[in-house]
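Any chance you'd type out a single protein's sequence alongside its tokenized fold?
>
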Amino acid sequence: MDPSQYKVGIPGELWDNYRPGGFHPVHIKDLLKDGRYKIINKLGAGSSSTVWLARDNHNQCNVSVKIVLARESDEACGGNHQLQIMRHITENGDPNHPGRKHVSHLLDSFYHEGPNGRHLCIVQELIGPDLEFVTMELRFELNRDHRRRVSAQLLLAVDYLHSCGVVHGDIHKGNVLFRLADIDRSTLRGIQRQVSSPNKAPIVRKDGLPLEKGMLQYTVVNLLYDGDMYDPQYLNQVQLVDFGKSFFISTPPKLHRTPPWSYRSPEQVFRHTLTEAIDIWSLGCITYQLITTDFLFGWMFQEPKKPEVLIRRFQRILGDVPEEWIREALESGVLKKEPHDKDIDLFQPLEAQLLDSGFGFEADDPERPIPPLHKRNFDLLLNYIQKTLVVNAEQRATSEDLLADPWVTGANQGRVA
């Protein structure tokens, strides 16, 4: 299909994926699994799935249903890999590990036949808004202690996964959700009050012809939660979700499925063998972003979308990148050109960049020196991030190492759960 032939009132996922092998066309009030799950609203969409708020008519609760692309749902294409990962962490993880509750768990799974093929459907708990949206909405209301606790909870989640022998592989703010108390147990009328009504816009062909088979009749904007639910006092716990790029430590993938550029580790950029250390790198990036509200290696309109640009930023912010890595990458074709200085003047060594972010200064007087208490917190944060962002993965801290770090143990006097 040609997406340019369609007129869409509001933005949504990639329209050219509504074809055989692509997305399943989902509409409000659709029923799945013989009527058990009723679609209520849209939670989001990614490159390989759409995610929906649904009512579980069997258990009388609200759930999240992830509907995977048909071509990625086949077992031969790894469609069952997510299920295998999720079952493994639920069935084999230590039930007493404090990080277990910070990881999303599988409730149900099934396959759905549609006009575009057979789709894997993964049912999970309904949790709440993602960290990306919350930190944007509450940029000045989530204090640094709160953000620090979120960082510590993410570390617990990562430590739990690693103890299960699993690497998450795609840690970024869109895959971290705040848990809203009892939202999964709200009545149907209650949940409809807690989230925005479905915002729909019709899809029409510009030539006036009927829609192609398998195309949506209308698009739905991602829902918004009621404004009162964004009170920081209700946002005390996060969960790590989406295992679409996860893998077992014992069997690293040969084909790299990379996270957003600003979270990519050196081994992902250079296409070295992947280990659990990629999660530690992502933790460092997301912690920096949480505390400062800025990206470390790039930002929304300045994301380093080429490896040679990102490598130069590694060099500028963190220090040397082994020359033999660069030489081997050029020889193998991983790099097409030498790392270059595009926009490099916008970046500084880590300590200076963290300092310039405003960490530790009084909001009403940015010229004041760092007070003693803030100076200690600055040093703790800097030391923690430095441990997570070691260029050589073999020398990077482990989740076990980081759990003993003063930045983590001091989060809310150690009460990070």
